[in-house]
Amino acid sequence: MMSDTAAEIFADHRELLFSVVYNMLGTVGDTEDVLQETWLAWSAQDPDRIENRRAYLVRIAVNQALAHQNTLRRRKETYMGPWLPEPLVAEPDAAESALRGESVSLAMLVILETLTPLERAVFVLHEVFAYQHTEIAAMLDRSPAAVRQVSHRAREHVQARRPRTRIDQRTHRAATERFIEAAFGGDLAALMQMLAPEVTLWSDGGGKSAAGGPRPIRGRDKVARTILANARGNQGLDVHYRRVNGDPSVVIFAEDAPFAVMVLDLDADGEQVRDIYVVSNPDKLTTIPDQPAG
Predict the structure, then answer these.
(1) Which of 107, 157, 241, 291 has the most crowded Cβ, counting Cβ within 10 A?
(2) How far apart are CA 51 and CA 55, in angstroms?
(3) Do 42 and 165 contact (CB within 8 A), yes or no?
């Protein structure tokens, strides 16, 4: 019979494992599946015979996540419209887990989608969780030199597309509030002023939401007019400001149930919006608590 010690050790590391795997996969459901597989593999071991339990658990989880990538990739190939990561929405007035707070922004997760599974695993472990190349090499059964090469390639790829900068939280929140005010207030001029010329609107409805689009919309004028049209067609919605993947963002409710999540990605100065991510696929909103009554 499995000892309580094994269960306690797994529970102590679960948040870390969740955060590592989620950053590799981008969906909560798949992350939970991988954690279940990790638990099954871990529960068959004798913890007393394992010197570094944390490293052992992370190794299992990372390799299970890599094995899960093929299933996830096949699902994305048949997905309707743009595929965006599942947002991690912090509950209102709740202390956010420090480890889940380490989850990279939604914008960064979109960039990580362009990496190979191996590049993404190495990037997440090294750049987000500060594992050394020698530690990652042991996890992935590769040489440190090979891991360093993969890490260098992944980092260059990511930095070429999006330097890793986080906007001040108050600046981000203020910009998000101005954007929502302009959008739902029908103020085209204010909206145009906020949008970068090359802004892109990414809308993930998964073919299950009218708010989703078949492809990204690019350019300030097209994006502004699309945003205003959607706002006019969805009056009566409740807008709440929440932290999504660590950033001040918006959760929109319809009849007290989650309707969509909107995340703005700002330029380095925090003055203009360069990308807008809208997730309205109901399958990706299931972990968001319903709006409290009243």
Answers:
(1) 107
(2) 9
(3) no
What is the rounded CA–CA span in Å between residue 262 and residue 107? 11
The one-letter amino acid code at 167 reads I
**The pLDDT of residue 294:** 47
pLDDT at res. 212? 72
Smallest Cα–Cα separation from 108: which of 167, 29, 173, 195? 167
- What would the pLDDT profile of 126-147 be if each residue is shown by its tens digit? 999 999 999 999 999 999 999 9
Cα angle for residues 291, 293, 294 (degrees, 5° grid) = 115
- Read out DSSP for 190-221? HHHHHEEEEEEEEEE-TTS-TT--SS-EESHH
Helix (H, G, I), strand (E, B) or coil at 239: strand
CA 7 to chain centre: 28
Three-state secondary-structure class, residue 108? helix
